Amino acid sequence: MVFTNNTTGNFSFPTVGTISKTEVTIWIGIQFFLSLLGALLIVLLLMLMSRLHKLKTGSGYLIAHALLVDLTFCLVITPITNIPIYLKQIDFVFPYDCTFTSFLMLLIVYTANWTAVALAANRLIAILLPYWYKRFTSPRFTACVVMMIWSMTMVCAVPTLDLLPGLKHALLPSGSCGVVRNEGVTFAILGTLGTYVPLVLLTIMYSSLFLMFRLGRRFNEGRSESHKNLLKRRLSIAKVLVLSLLWYCLCTLPTVILTMFYGAWWRRDIRLLLYTRTTQILGYAASPVFFLVLRPEYRMAVKRLLNIGDK
């Protein structure tokens, strides 16, 4: 999850301390390197999924959608949010639309959050209703789910285009965009719907899956061997999704704590901002690693793609 700071009021944020242009360049360079590496791995994973029918079945289309959202963050959100920070530090005057940038970032963040909820629901259905699972994974049904996700995120994000009364985005002294005026509660409500509601749903659903891991033997009693193998495979995919989500939350935890309890400090300290941006990028860029490392079918697909192994 990526959480937003919904603090209300009018703000003035002088920058804390000084930072050299070299240090800013290094931070930005690291962020672009991580984003590019993550994007390459995501493209590799999408190529594997497009080549092998097995990887497109079940939750494959939803996983592909989640990867495309992560790819958008790496290739679009990272540049449009970090280049202004660098240009600000070298005193380069440029026109910049903070309202649209903030909207686009929230749109991608909220979409990632609700896509994670859809994947968690997919795993629950796969395990609890295995005989009905195919009905919930057809291309038509998946397309409807994706449309619902984007409809929900648009409802949450579009009003942030400074359409809400008393809401104003502007470029902060650090070069980052932020809310400089928020006199109502609607922005906080939309942020809760886009971030905290998915977090609660994910906690409930993955806690249920965790209990199934613990009660695996009892859960498989009376089932055929083929059915047990199918459930084992579906649980293993769920494990990958859980680990990926835990990593995602761990990477965004610094931002969560700082924006919730030390928002004014976080907005003013350029080093703190660059650090949290880096961990945030890691949360998105590392998503394909879990599939490539933990899922044998993806590793085999890589070997086939690179012509490695037995011929």
Q: What do these coordinates show?
A:
The protein is mainly alpha-helical and 311 residues long. The protein has a single domain, classed as Rhopdopsin 7-helix transmembrane proteins. 72% of the residues lie in helices and 4% in strands. The protein has twelve helices and three strands. The protein has a three-stranded antiparallel beta sheet with strand order 1-3-2. The protein is globular. The N and C termini lie far apart (43 Å). The N terminus is likely disordered.
Which descriptors apply to this entry?
311 residues, mainly alpha, Rhopdopsin 7-helix transmembrane proteins, 3 strands, 4% strand, globular, disordered N terminus
Rg estimate, integer Å: 21 Å
Identify the CATH class. Answer: Mainly Alpha
> Level of helix content?
over 70%
Quickly give the structural class.
mainly alpha
Q: Main beta sheet: strand number and arrangement?
A: 3 strands, antiparallel
Q: What percentage of the residues does DSSP assign to strands (E)? A: under 5%
Number of helices: 12
Please report the total strand number as a whole number: 3
Named CATH topology: Rhopdopsin 7-helix transmembrane proteins
Mean pLDDT rating: 78
* Low-confidence segments: 1-16
CATH superfamily: Rhodopsin 7-helix transmembrane proteins
**Which architecture would the CATH scheme give at its second level?**
Up-down Bundle
- Sequence of strands across the biggest β-sheet: 1-3-2
String of helices and strands: EHHHHHEEHHHHHHH
